[in-house]
Structures are given as structure tokens and as C-alpha cells.
Protein: AI-2E family transporter
Amino acid sequence: MSVYDKFVANKRLRRAVLLLVVILLFYLLRSMLSLFLLTFIFTFLSVQLVRAVQKHFNVKPIWIIAPVYILIIALLVFAITNYVPQLVSQSVKIFDSLTKFYHSKEVRDNQYLNYIYQYLQQINLDNQIKTAASQVVNYITSVGAVGFNIFISFLLSFFYTTQIEDMNSFGRQFLNSNFSWLFDDVRYYGQKFINTFGVVIEAQLMIAVVNTVLTTITLIFMKMPGVIALAAMVFILSLIPVAGVIISLIPLSFVAYSVDGLKYVIYIIIMVIVIHLIETYFLNPQFMSSMTHLPIFFTFVVLIVSEELIGTWGLIIGIPIFVFLLDILGVHQIGGPKKPKRHKFRLKKS
Structure:
């Protein structure tokens, strides 16, 4: 038996080598990471929608996806023309009001806030704010590239979903090729990736939407300024598992204190605690699979490491990638063993 035949026969080795090659390719093509991820997310959500509708109605994907995509485009155009100017205006006003509040006499005369002020002076917050502002400007100037990636991803997901049966039929042809073992391993990783990464991303999006809606309703009830800008910030931060809700507490507290003092800060803290409890005890069990329930320590470690390795995207996809790797390694009981299901299975088997 040749070395090649031995390699092909060793399924565990060849799959490990393939995984390393795929990771290397993604690293070399990391400049296209946004395009890959956005295309996968849009396609995954579209296919999930098609499968859900086809369970009840026997209709072709094109008749499901086309109206949905047209509606999404119409809503985007409406939002861009009506709400984006307000979002920018409110963001600038909030930034200016927080800057004035930070330098106000009220902060320096307050004993407790003065300690915070002195600490912020020590860490040179002014320069950090200027640096952050310059980064925001850079992001805005690169909005064309981001918009192009979103447009291409949106278009690719549309074409894939409308021809999903043809795509699946075409993909199955590779399983009968001369390198069928390679494409079989690729399919294996693809299924694992969809069952872990895709499900976690979908669940996190649903959680982010619910968190944003609850927060926005509370902010409107409290008559907070710049609700649109704050809601956009909360949605983006809610995409970060566990830590996002906590991080959003900091800017919300500053805005609340500048509006009506410590009383509003307490309201904001209560709101964040309630939303966090809803997320922990209701949303996560409803939207997340049990295997995605990581200990908080591991969650924060993964977020820190993935942000360092991947950047901003790492805060959003770090947990799904970690869960995917755990699934590949055969760690299936992250959320605890499912004893009831095993018990029932054994009774039926006996």
C-alpha cells in the first residue's frame, strides 16, 4: 500500500490535515473574511426560511425568497433615506453632550464622580476619545467597501437559495469523483459548521433583536435622547455573547446620568439586569442549543482571544467558531449531559 493510500485510509489523519489546510486558506484570504461570513449568514438564514415555508407549502424557493428580498431592499432604502441622517445627527449630539458632561463642573464637584474623573484623566481619556473618533471616521470613509461586501453577499445568497436544489445536485457529483474522499470530508465539516456555527449565529441574531426591542421600549418610556442611535448601539453590542449586554451598560449609564442624574442610572442598571435575566433564563434556552452553553469564564476568554486574532469580527464569531471546534473534537456535553434522552433510548432499545 502506497503512502497516499495509507493517508486516504486514515480518516482521522486526513480530516485533521484538511482542517489545517482550510484554516490556512482562510488566514491567507482573511481580507475577504467579511465577504465569506456575510454570505454564509445571509444564505443560512434564507435557506432556513425556505425550509420552514416548504414544510407547509409546496412552493419553489424563488417564490419565497424574491418577495422577502424585495421587501428587505425596500425597507433598507426607506431606513437609509429617513433614519440614517437621524442616526448620524443623534450620535453626534450624544457624543457632544457626553463630552460636555465629562468636562462639566458638576462632575468635578461630585465627590464620587471626581474620583472617576481623576482616573479618566490618568488614563488620558481625551486622547483615547480622539483616537476612537478618528477610527470612526475611517470606518465611515470605508463604508463603500463595507456596502459592496454586503451587496455582493446579499446577491450571492439570493442566487444560491433560489437554486438550492440545483446546487445540492451539483455538489453531490463531487462525491462520485476521483477524489470523493476529499469532498466527503469537506461535506462532513460543512455539516458540522452549519449545525454549530450557523445555529449559534442565528440564535444570537434573534437574541440581539429581542434585547434591542426591549431596550428601545424602555428608553422611549424613560424619554431618553437619541433613541435611534442608542438602539443601533445596543443591537451591535448584543451580537457579542454575554459581554455585549454588560458593555452596553457603560455608555447607557453616562447618557442616563447626563439626563437626570443618579436616578436614571439606577433605572438603566435595573433595565440591563432584567434584560440579562431574560436572556439567561428565557432567550438562551429557547434559541440556543444545549451544547452552546459555555461557562462564563470560557466565554470571556474566547472573546478576548478571538478579538486579538480576528479583530472586531472575533467578538461576534469567536463563540460559534469555538463551539464548532469543540464539536469537531467530540466534546458534545458542554451544556451538561442529556440523561433523560439517553434513558428513554435505552428503555426502548431493551
